[in-house]
Amino acid sequence: MVTLRLEEPGRLALSQTEAPARVGAGEARVRVHRIGVCGTDIHAFGGKQPFFTYPRILGHELGIEVLEVGSGVNSIRPGDRCSVEPYLHCGACIACRRGKPNCCAHLKVLGVHTDGGMREELVVPAAKLHPSTRLTFDQLALVETLGIGCHAVDRANLEAGEFVLVIGAGPIGLSVMQFAVEAGARVIVLDINENRLRFCREQLGVEHTLSAAAGPATEALLALTGGDLPTAVFDATGNPKSMMAAFDYTAPGGRLIFVGLFQGDVTFNDPHFHRRELTLLASRNARSTDFTRIIRLIESGRIDTTPWITHRAPLQEAVLAFPSWTKPETGVIKAMIEL
Fold this sequence. Notes:
- By secondary structure, the chain is α/β, with parallel strands linked by helices.
- It folds into two domains: 2-131 and 305-338, Quinone Oxidoreductase, Chain A, domain 1, CATH 3.90.180.10; 148-282, Rossmann fold.
- Helix content is 27%, strand content 26%.
- It is built from ten helices and 17 strands.
- β11 (186-191), α5 and β12 (208-211) form a beta-alpha-beta unit.
């Protein structure tokens, strides 16, 4: 079968690999139809992704068709279209026992810690497949992206009417915005890319957008919030300077949620942090319930993913197309690989 593998930073290669030989109990063999390209893939391509080794088959945003199921599988059947929950947890560690498998101590994420979906077929635990009779493969591939924002917003416990700042208008930031709006928050977006800010206004209906290109946004945020600053700030950039600046944008008593990550340390002024009694939260991955919720929201029309996909390529052409998708000037919101 055709497989696209990241051999080392900056070098993707197509090859022929063996199809899965067998399907075990509780597993399913699936045909990959769509692969969303996300920040994790781009960071891995650039050699900047934490928790990563090479070579690796990328791809964890997947829209698939079930080909075969193993014994004991009753939740899905051959022919079902599904989104893949790519977080393979152990079920035994302290996080799993406390209902937090998304941050399992031994977590393996498809396309990051173990080979992912940039290939024609793979075998996955059937419990990680979320079917829909109505969604397209494009929509199913975007469920995981939306799950990141869904979980982050749940972590923040937003209240209707509060001012929320989302820093970074890439796909992860967009997913945060979707669920902040769903929670009834008043959303402000900060980014350096005017095209992405325009996308937020025109496609998501975000009322307030600010350009980070002009420097610190503190005064503009104070003006928008009546002198209060946002009570919840989400940083979805994975940029250390942005993440550290975000402490200054959070209102006293507020919450700062890091959705993006990078290879390095975040530092902040401790008296400033304590004086405001800020709550600092990390948000990792998503939960099974998030996938179910998102599928229902897309099916009902509450979330429209149609404008997100701006670039496409078949798997055989992704080697040439992928480097351009890493460049901001290309104008990529979400690139989709088709099989």
